[in-house]
Amino acid sequence: MITCSAPGKVYLFGEHAVVYGEPAVCCAVDIRTRVSVAPADSVTISSSLGTTGIDFETHPYVSAVVERFREIISLEGVSIRIVSEIPVGSGLGSSAAVTIATIKALDTLLGTGLELDDIARMGHEVEQRIQGAASQTDTYVCTMGGVVMIPQRKGLDLIDCGIVIGNTNIFSSTKELVANVAELNESFPEVIGPVLSSIGMMSTVGEDLVNSKDYVSVGKLMNINQGLLDAIGVGCAELSSFTYAARNNGAYGAKITGAGGGGCMVAIAPREHVDDVAAAIAAAGGEAVVTEATDIGVREESR
Ligand SMILES: Nc1ncnc2c1ncn2[C@@H]1O[C@H](COP(=O)(O)OP(=O)(O)O)[C@@H](O)[C@H]1O
Ligand SMILES: C[C@@](O)(CCOP(=O)(O)O)CC(=O)O
Ligand SMILES: [Mg+2]
């Protein structure tokens, strides 16, 4: 049996706008999905969502990965078992992590010799197939780890402060949220276009601030980015309440991460304040997790 893992991620800046070609800055975090594979006569996929064969209702991403491998190598059966610390449908990139960890595990089992760039590319193709429109961000950062600027694929300095995630526990489908933004953009292109460009500008301005570890300024930009995400309709009352709770309790800045509409927000904070920030999010009704950035991307854990 071979086990591979891949990390979740938070966006410092740029989700949604990145789907329209704007830059984004995304950071892998130390919360992982583990996928174990073993030879078998037929395909079995088991996770917290259930046990299935190839099944595009329950396991669309993993099913698409298996089909993709069948295009390059003969693969009759395989047993795939998923254990994840990343909440599903929460903006932390659970879909990318399960996709990338499965690709790496199958690559290792079948000896297909994929390089990291190949894994990221295949993962992006799978996300595009299942999600409709999908940027390369989640699959790339979860393959490589660290802090990455997209579309340049440029590595930035690892975030050296505390990261607190606040989960609303409201399931949000990235596919739906991306489609909602597209609809708003079609209705009001003159209004939404400039908002998306302004979101992109966060990354352009933020890049040097991340590299110089100026987290006070990074936090201010995250707060502006949050306002613009609200403007494109991907916020909700709980996400707003948790971002204010974080900001009022020592965070440098706080915003939605990922698709929004539910799911998670992210705050960056001095390490000495992370517990206060987490307590404030919990008091506002969220599930708070204190984490750190990680430069460990997809990797084999055991065989
Ligand atoms: N642990 C898991 N096991 C199986 N499938 C998973 C797992 N985590 C995520 N997924 C897949 O990813 C989908 C959620 O992806 P998405 O809507 O993009 O949200 P997220 O923000 O978490 O990436 C789930 O509906 C499921 O198909
Ligand atoms: C909204 C979007 O920018 C990020 C979605 O992230 P997540 O699936 O919510 O973790 C979509 C994308 O980049 O493909
Ligand atoms: Mg996703």
Summarize the topology.
Blueprint: E1 2-13, E2 24-39, E3 43-47, E4 50-52, H1 60-72, E5 78-84, H2 94-110, H3 116-131, H4 137-144, E6 147-150, E7 154-156, E8 162-167, H5 174-187, H6 189-211, H7 215-231, H8 237-247, E9 253-257, E10 264-269, H9 274-283, E11 287-291, E12 299-302
Parallel strand pairs: 3-5
Antiparallel strand pairs: 1-2, 1-12, 2-5, 2-6, 3-4, 6-7, 8-10, 8-11, 9-10
The structure holds adenosine-5'-diphosphate, (3R)-3-hydroxy-3-methyl-5-(phosphonooxy)pentanoic acid (PMV) and magnesium ion (MG).
Report the strand count. 12
**CATH class descriptor name of the largest domain:** Alpha Beta
Mean pLDDT across the residues is 96
Work out the helicity level.
40-55%
What general form does the structure show?
Answer: globular
Q: What gap, in angstroms, lies between the N and C termini? A: 5 Å
Strand fraction band? 25-35%
Order of helices and strands: EEEEHEHHHEEEHHHHEEHEE
CATH architectural designation of the largest domain: 2-Layer Sandwich
Radius of gyration: 19 Å
**Distinct helical segment count:** 9
CATH topology of the largest domain: Ribosomal Protein S5, domain 2
**What small ligands are held by the chains?**
adenosine-5'-diphosphate, (3R)-3-hydroxy-3-methyl-5-(phosphonooxy)pentanoic acid, magnesium ion
Largest pleated sheet? 8 strands, mixed
Residue stretches low in confidence (pLDDT < 50, at least 5 long) are none
**Count of the domains:** 2
Summing up helix and strand content along with how strands pair, one would put the structural category as: alpha+beta
